[in-house]
Amino acid sequence: MLNDALRGRIALVTGGSRGIGRAIAIALAEVGARVAVNHRANEEDVHELVALIRGRGGDAVAVRGDVSVPDEVSEMLAHVHDAFGPVEILINNAGIARQLSLEKLHLATWDATMATNLRGPFIVTSAVVPEMRKRNWGRLVFVSSTAARVGGIVGPHYAASKAGVEGLMRSYAGLLAKEGITSNAIAPALIETEMLAGNPNVNPDSIPVGRLGTAEEVADLVVAVARNPYVTGQTFQINGGLYKT
Predict the structure, then answer these.
(1) What is the mean pLDDT of residues 126-155?
(2) How many whole angstroms separate alpha carbon 140 and alpha carbon 11?
(3) 3-class DSSP assignment, residue 189
(4) What contacts 170, CB < 8 A, 6 or more positions away?
(5) pTM of the model
(6) Which of 158, 172, 230, 243 is the catalytic position?
(7) Residue 90: which H helix or E strand, with range?
(8) What are the structural domains of the chain?
(9) Residue 25 near residue 1 (C-beta atoms within 8 A)
(10) Does 158 participate in catalysis according to the annotation?
């Protein structure tokens, strides 16, 4: 049954201590997955989240690591393996979004954005796929953005990094489909998180449904995609009708 498809599976959520990642970690735990929550520096937030999941009867552990640094990824995955075993569900969620005017966008910001948003998913995915292939089962979910299609409000560096993520996702989908491994992307826009807090360019009235989305709504879609073994190579937009494919 699809409802039980993720029960007991080992999930890693990168950038999981806050916002969308936090909601995804909670949602996966609620359907019975054992969740490793990755963070880079938010010790207090991630331990509060792990305690929350455990308090609700779920199974979770905090694992630190910068996804753009191979040695830290290796150490992080070793901790996951010690706690639970090999990663079966990977949610590539870690990302940065530094909004800048075109005049202030320089190479340093471009490089930093690509390192976390695109290099990171490649490093982590490359590290977990071999074990998935051994088991003929795996779920890769990449958190993209509607900005990959429309440019968005953050800037070219962010939009380009998320467009790259979708290309990465599609390549994995084609290469791994016959091995029981699916690869998909979720592309949110204008979700009510700390990333958007206080941003004067965010106008809920511009969204057809008339409000910002919630992190829980994104997480619900992530779980649905991860459950389904026949869905692969797809980008799922979740933006209140702001962008229509």
Answers:
(1) 96
(2) 10
(3) coil
(4) 183, 233
(5) 0.95
(6) 158
(7) strand 89-92
(8) 2-238 (3.40.50.720)
(9) no
(10) yes
